[in-house]
Amino acid sequence: MRKDFAHLGFFLFFLSVWSSLSTGMAMAKNETIPVNVGVVLDLNISLGRIGMSCISMALSEFYASHGNYKTRLVLKTRDSRRDVVGAAAAALDLIQNEEVQAILGPGSSTQANFLIGLGEKAQVPIISFSATSPSLSSLRSQYFIRATLNDSTQVPAITAIFQAFEWREAVLIYVDNEYGDGIVPYLTDALQGINVRLTYRSVISPVASDDQIIEELYKLMAKQTRVFIVHMFTPLGSRLFAKADEIGMMGEGYVWILTDGLTDLLTTLSPTDINSMQGVLGVKPYVPSTKDVQSFRVRWKRKFQQDYPLDETSEPNIFGLWAYDAACALAMAVEKVGTANFSFQKSNTSINISTDLDTIGVSQIGPDLLQSLLSTKFKGLSGHFQIFDGQLHSTAFQIVNVIGKGERGVGFWTPKNGIIRKLSFIDTNSNTYSTSKDNVGAIVWPGEPTYVPKGWVLPVNENKLRIGVPLKDGFSEFVKVTWDANNNKTQITGYCIDVFDAVMNSLPYAVPYEYIPFGTPDGKPLGNYNDLIYQVLLKKYDAVVGDTTIVANRSRYVDFTLPYTESGVSMIVPIKDNKSKSAWTFLKPLTWDLWMTSACFFVFIGFVIWVLEHRINEDFRGPPSHQAGTIFWFSFSTMVFAQKERIVSNLARVVMIIWFFVVLILTQSYTASLTSMLTVQQLQPTVTDINELRTKGYYIGYQQGSFVLGFLKRMNFDESKFRIYNSPEELADLLSKGSANGGIAAAFDEIPYMKLFISQHCSKYTMVQPTYKFDGFGFAFPRGSPMVPDVSRAVLNVTEGDQMIKIEKEWFGKTNSCSDDNESSLSSNNISLDSFWGLFLITGLTSVLALIIVLAMFLHKHRDVVTGEDSLLTKIKTLATLFDEKDLSFHTFRLPDQLYSGSIEPMPAVTNFSPRPSTFSTRTNNIPFSGEQGTSSSEHGGRSSTAPGGQSLPAIVPTVELANSNQERTIIPTSTSH
User: Fold this and answer.
1) Which 3 state secondary structure label does DSSP give 376?
2) Three-state SS sequence of 724-792
3) Residue 635 banded pLDDT, cuts 50, 70, 90
4) CA–CA separation, 547 vs 529, rounded Å?
5) Reported confidence tier of residue 300, pLDDT bands at 50, 70, 90
6) Do the strands 397-403 and 406-414 form a parallel or antiparallel pair, or are they unpaired?
7) Sequence-distant (≥ 6) Cβ neighbours of residue 259 within 8 angstroms
8) Phi and psi of 779, rounded to 5°?
9) Strand 513-517 relative to strand 465-469, pairing
10) What is the SS3 assignment for 840?
11) Measured between alpha carbons, how far is 912 from 902 in angstroms, rounded to an integer?
12) How far apart are CA 79 and CA 77, in angstroms?
């Protein structure tokens, strides 16, 4: 029995020990470390409620799937009540009293500005998922982490939309706080980079009343810009569009573009608010609709309706997804820090300090937690989560269009590819950046027009554009103002007016306008062209149309369209008949350099032929004076092909063939030019150089009111030598008088005026080069006017078409033939060396080559002299003597029997020996054939007078070779006794 009690006691003892151990192990397993984390949000607005619900869901779901984590975030929530001071007080309370290790929030950039300083002082990370202002980055606090996008990242997407639809002006409407101000410099610089001008900045207070909003909208309505960029949150944004719709600013012709701050909150707006925003465009960060996101939306909607049953928000926005990811990232970062000392080090300050800021403690794990946050990366609901430079970075923006009950995506923008229709079509290997509107889907614009709004209209308080036109007396073909006193109306016509009418009619939209002369009621001009242009700056005129030239100083006050006429300023002078009647006219067809070159080549060719023929041709032998005469006679006689000397050398023949061709071309050109000079009227300008006008002090003219006056002053002309004309008739009168008789020697004006004047007086006056570059006539508009690009494109369309030709013919008639005849008559008839240097080069090279060949053959033949031991001077004399001798080996000096190698038959007469014409020789059997140096014929291979058998040969009959006038040779035998 006692033994049974012992067993029972042991069993109970074991059971109690096992129970206590199991309980201890379970308690140890479930023990976690709480970490206080603050939440500062505006809990009375949808954005704050969405953020709070997403944060609580994130932590609940995160720890449910990560039960092994030893740390647990404990949320300490404070409502900032949409007040900066309230947010600061809440953060200070959380840091001092709750000793939170991080703060999620605040909800706005304005509140974050002060909280960042508190976080820096206490080394507590401030993690905001909705403070997007770029100005917060300038604080450079390492403890501020933006778990959202910087507002500046969306600016390139907005500018791409402007490029796609070619808008050139915009109005920025933004809220007057930290959030609104932050994007202004980035958006302004980006738009200026694509030549888009912010014509106005509309700043609206966050607490503006409806009346103040309507007053500001009426200001915008009175302006001509119709593209508005809206940068604000709700509810101010929804109120703005409700009032804009109320006063008619959501109708046809208007363009509204939302930044992501308002676009991301479209899902939180009521149907009434959405109805007032029909046709609005917006950009927002793109979040792929994955299964995780879709599942989260369902869970969130169920929870949100339980927590806030009166809130009609249907689904979370991008800020809610960022809040969810930020809470998960913070939980991961705290776990990586470990079970460290989650306490604060209190500051050593006096107890009498009157402010709580100096008593803020410093978190012991703040630096480690910060580094852990910065190194945390994972795939969250909003996409890839990783902090770079203290903030998230987006890879794509979606372009949406408000239609019906919500928004519809019409395209995407990426930094690499620009605007694209679908992200799935991106070519990862393509670097092409596109801003084509063809990549954007169908857009329903406000008022549902069938066309893309041009982005501007005429101001509503004006019915027509006021077009200023110059008032002038002369050159009425360009602009003519006619006053009708009976009907009290003004009729304005002219070439410039017709061109402007054609340009405006070619625009894709109607623009009403009226012409207003720049003059007094009695028809007197009010000033010059510069004064007229200045009226646009003074807003007296909306544009200036007329013969107004585009010059640099005027472009400081207005913007010009592309020019529609030829550009430049030229000089016009009288012309005179310069038909030559001088005794030396025959020298004028060729320029002096061509004369000298030709003469030198005539002598050079004669010398070359003499060198090539002297040793082998009797025609080029004789006394020195005779040879010199032969050189000159032969060379110059080739000019008329009258040379009588034979050419026997092949090299000389090649040289002469080329030289004959050169002479033929030269003589024919000379003949044609001289004929033209003696028969065709030669019209030449009286003045050809602007320097001649200055040096001789001639009077010059310019058109009254023209900018040419300033041009002449810059050219250093004497102002006392200026004379003014107002019409083509006055100009013709001044030029006809001449500078010495109260007129002018030349006039300076723009090419359109000069062409018109010459078309009327083409036989008397001409334009003289050079032409000084200017930009021609253009239409002037106010600086930054959106009409300038459209009108410039219309100018190109008109000037490139047939309509421009018709307008020119109507006002100027046919001037081409007159201009062509005038220009041809002014062309020079002088023939220069530039036209013949190629022929002379070929002739010179051929002649030099022939000389080199002959010299080489001669030196090779007499190489014993060249290689001898005599002095250089002796060698030269010897070679000169040898060169002066005949080359008896050449066929022209061979004896008859030498013409047939191996023949010994006697010839009755020597008929193939070719002495010079008019010479004769008699030869007998007792007289040997001798050369010029008296050498016997036997020494030259001649025949003996005795046969090999010792018998006497028949006597050789001498012959006399005569030359008749036709260069025919006759051989007359003569008798000789035995």
Assistant:
1) coil
2) EECCHHHHHHHHHHCHHHCCCCEEEEEHHHHHHHHHHCCCCEEEEEEEECCCCECCEEECCCCHHHHHH
3) confident
4) 9
5) very high
6) antiparallel
7) 151, 154, 158, 183, 229, 230, 231, 282, 283
8) -95, 140
9) parallel
10) helix
11) 18
12) 7
